[in-house]
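Escalated from tier 1: oxa(dethia)-CoA holo job.
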Amino acid sequence: MFAHITGWGKALPERRLTNADLEKMVETADEWIVSRTGIRERRIASDGETTDSLGAEAAQGALAKAGVTAESVDMVIAASCTPETLFPSIANRIQERLHLKRAAALDLNQACTGFIHALAVAQGFIATGQYRTILVVGTEILTRHVDWNDRATCVLFGDAAGAVVVQASEEPGGPLAFDLGSDGNGGDLLMLPIEGKLCMNGREVYRFAVTAMTASLIAAVENANITLDQVSLLIPHQANSRIIHSAAQTLKIPLERVFTNVEKYGNTSAASIPVALCEAIEEGRIKPGDIVGMVAFGAGLAWGATVLRWTSQVA
Ligand code: UT7
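Tier 2 regenerated the structure:
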């Protein structure tokens, strides 16, 4: 059984925080932020917004796009590292908000690689024949967990949610292969304690990021028995445009075949790839038959990549 992405949706808080706004909060400069990261602004959740409200909004869009009713959803997986409560899970809340009466619900925390891991879990459930329709949501409110006095981290992150509907089909399509992995040795380099603020060794994470993105995408491509040339669009985790450009250069993938929107949203962790996927579709950069690559790295340290054959009409 194949696992096709048949719907997609995103949710972005309205409030924008620009680099000029940040210049008034910490000792930084638009020029520093743009040249080191590519980020120009990020979204900030309002007091009333939660990871499940953003996640549900994105999921609603994905269900509508897929033409799937709430009753037919078998499972909802919410990838997030910023839940408001340890339990109930974000997925439980989304299940309730969207009246997904039959759906099993689970959260999956693998930080910035959460969406890719969740997609792999969804594909597994579909491949075994256990479930036919799964909602995969990436949702984060990171700006409540950054130290707004730490200029080295507070300029990097933003809030967002993205979602896809994954459906079983006997027609070939969907993920051709995955590569997932982790190296717990680097766990201290990027951490969000339960009581505390996000802390990071930026230089070390940067070094890891370029190597991990490159190696993981190559592994996924090899697992799928295809070549990098066949990847028509690469959607990398949107953490930093320098990291993305450097990985693309090593992989010899021209930038026209690499999607970026980090300038608008910053690093939104598990939400970044599904939001980028939605925008790539909106911009007409994906069509049926294309092979789309997705690759992410992040806390753990962890990495993940997939290459999938796109099958849905996008108009
Ligand atoms: O999903 C995974 C999330 N993590 C990442 O993707 C992070 C990966 N790392 C990075 O993207 C980069 O390491 C950063 C963008 C975080 C930092 O860039 P860098 O070129 O590695 O800078 P650095 O940490 O080596 O710092 C260079 C200088 C330092 O000053 P001194 O010690 O040279 O005087 C910092 O204090 O830049 C200073 N600095 C800043 N200056 C202005 C650090 N943050 C800022 C800032 N504005 N916001």
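The chain has two domains: 2-169, 174-309.
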